[in-house]
Structures are given as structure tokens and as C-alpha cells.
Amino acid sequence: MGRLEGKVALVTGAGSGIGRAIAEAFAGEGARLAVNDIRGSRARATAERLARRGGHALPVQGDVSVESAVKDMVRKTLRAFSRIDILVNNAGVVTFVLVERMPPRIWDRMIAVHLRGTFLCTRYVLPHMLKAGSGKIINIASQRGQKGGPWLTHYAAAKAGVIGFTRSLALEVSRRNINVNAIAPGPILTGATISARFRRTVRGLPIGRPGRLDDIVPTALFLASDDSSFYVGQTLCPNGGDVML
Length: 245
Hints:
Number of strands: 9
CATH class: Alpha Beta
Mean pLDDT: 96
Largest sheet: 7 strands, parallel
Strand content: 15-25%
Structural class: alpha/beta
Oligomer: single chain
Distance between the termini: 35 Å
Radius of gyration: 17 Å
Order of helices and strands: EHEHEHEHEHHEEHEHE
């Protein structure tokens, strides 16, 4: 019997990268999935991938920064599965821009996807968890939210906000049997083009290599499972030593 047998998880940004890897791992442990992506084709591809492996997944397209889209996503998940036990706020974007050259629209989009998206998805899933009397919320942050980074002020600010949101929400709901925690990965090799900037970052890591998707997945599985019941408002850091707390 899997660690998540009988559970229902909603994973945002599950069309690729960390989100898809987490969805696959959850399905492998017995969870039923709602897999979200801003592009419906990618959400469907993940759902089909899980189905081929014997999983049960519902694709739910939507932009997590848009309130009506989030409401629709939650409504479809509840209609299909009647419950949401686990929420993984993973959807995100990355751009590289110096502050002196940054158009406000770039700043606004970064904050909208990472921070507003985390709030909106939590806002519309949380009441159902509270009614059920249990739940796990996992927010994907970044080591950049802890240490900052040039060309990434908007990204670092958004991820620092996610960490602050995680801590504050945990204070609100932990006594109501809702565990809220975050994961702050370091540089992760996801199959995208590897830039010179990425290679420089990796060379500076104590571990001497980039992270892989399977370096992140065990942390998400742990936080989604009953094993993490005493973890409240924590930020777990699979980052190769880039940030040591």
C-alpha cells in the first residue's frame, strides 16, 4: 500500500519539471491527481503519462494568477474526486532582468504567478481541507528567496514572499490539522537549455553538481505523507549546500 493511498492531490505547474515529477511520485504512492498547467496540452500530457503508468489523473488547465481560473480548477477537482487532501503550489516562471531595466509588467507577472497564485490556490482549497479536518499544503519556494540573486530580484522577492506566506499560514491553521510547509530547491537540472549563468551557479555549490528532479521528489513525498505531521511552517532545503541554515 502506497504512502498516499486514498489521497487526492492538486499539483499546479505539473506540465513539466518539478511539478510533473512530484505528480508522478504521488501517483506512484497511490494518490489520485489533478494536474494543472497554464497550457492545457501540457496538463493533458502529464495526465496521459500517469494513466499509462496506472495512475488516475485529471488535467485542469488554468493560470493560477487568475481568480476565476483557480475557482474553476478547484471546482473541477472536487467534482471529480470529492476532496483535496494535498495541495502543491508549484506553478512558476523565471526571467532574468536587472532592476534598472525591468518593466513593471515583468515584476507584476512574477509576483502574480508565484505569490498571488500561491495565495489564490490556497484560498480556494483551504476551506475544503478545514471542513475535512486535515490537509497538507506544500509551497515550492527557492533558495533565491533565502539568499537573493542578481538579475533575479523579482523572483527572489516572490519566493521570499512564499516563505513568509508559508510561515504565517501555518500559524493560522496548524491547530486545525493542516500542515503547511515549503520546499526551497537549489539549481535543478530540468532538461531545459543550460545557460552559462546556471553553470556558474553549479560550480559554486559545495556538492559540485546540479540538483536532479529526484533530489526534490522525496522531500515532497515526505511533506505530503503522515510522516511530516510535526513539521509546521518549515522550509526544507534540498539545495546542494547553496544555503546552509
